Automatic annotation (TrEMBL):
Protein name: Methyltransferase domain-containing protein
Domain of life of the source: Bacteria
Keyword Methyltransferase: yes
Gene Ontology terms describing biological process: methylation
One family name in Pfam for this protein: Methyltransf_23
Coiled coil segments of this chain: none
Length: 278
């Protein structure tokens, strides 16, 4: 056993075996392998719960899980921008900046970037925010964002917990969540906590990945969201709109976008801008 609290070699072997079975179309064997991963590592650093849900062999989890997201992005930090932006055409931060401009919102006193990653949203809004804060689970990502210089303060933490526990009481007039919702199932807790941190008539801007037939074979689709074959959460437009309104938002924009390329095809999603009701 290692200091991580589980047998990393056993986990790696089980995961590789399950992944090979999945790629070969042996669903039952793959599901058995992913369940073995969870027995070895209940915290689920390899995302076995998401893979089980995508196979239709398990319920959709509440989220991708802190252990998996942290591991995923710590591993990807050094190549993140090259792969996601340059190779896969990810441009959500720029779409956020453009949408805010079209709606007439050019300046913000205080903004929070949830899941800030390497700082792409901070760079897209640089010069338009007096005080920019960012938070991300991945320490490696935060280090890169720090070097970019677009943030006044950066924190390592999970988005929902940060919104709940952040000690400063001063509200934000903008909270952004670019490519965060695809790692969450039920969005109601996030939306409620965002609303609680916004000033009166403050703005929330976020991206989703759309729930469409090609991505909704996994468990949970009847609830308005599902784990797709890309092992990310996809949300239905009606579900997201209802969750925003229930949290006390009025929707200013809800636009179809291409989030990035996925296996050579455009990955459809939505960009939303919502205002907290006064």
């Amino acid at each position: 056993m290692t200091t991580t609290g589980f047998d990393e070699e056993a986990l790696d072997a089980s995961y590789r075996k399950a992944l090979a079975a999945e790629k070969a179309g042996r669903t039952d064997a793959a599901a058995k392998g992913y369940r073995a991963c969870l027995e070895i590592d209940p915290d689920d650093h390899v995302g076995a719960r998401l893979r089980l849900a995508a196979l239709g062999a398990g319920e959709a989890p509440a989220s991708a899980g802190e252990a998996y997201v942290t591991t995923l992005f710590d591993q990807q930090a050094d190549t993140f921008e090259d792969i996601l932006v340059r190779q896969l055409g990810y441009g959500v931060p720029g779409l956020i900046a453009d949408a805010l401009s079209r709606l007439g919102f050019e300046h913000f006193d205080r903004a929070l970037d949830l899941g800030c990653g390497t700082g792409l949203v901070g760079a897209a809004l640089d010069g338009r925010v007096d005080e920019m804060l960012g938070v991300d689970l991945s320490e490696n990502m935060v280090e890169i964002a720090f070097d970019g210089g677009a943030y006044d303060h950066l924190y390592i933490g999970e988005a929902l917990a940060f919104l709940e526990e952040f000690e400063e009481s001063e509200p934000f007039d903008l909270i952004a969540a670019a490519d965060v919702l695809p790692y969450l199932g039920d969005l109601s807790p996030l939306f409620a906590r965002v609303a609680a941190r916004l000033s009166s008539r403050g703005l929330f801007v976020a991206s989703t990945e759309a729930l469409v037939d090609a991505a909704s074979d996994g468990a949970g689709a009847e609830s308005g969201f599902a784990v797709g074959r890309d092992h990310r959460f996809h949300h239905g437009e009606a579900y997201v709109r209802a969750a925003l309104e229930a949290a006390g938002f009025t929707i200013l924009a809800f636009e179809p976008i291409t989030v990035r390329m996925q296996e050579g095809q455009p990955a459809p999603g939505h960009l939303l801008v919502a205002r907290r009701l006064g």
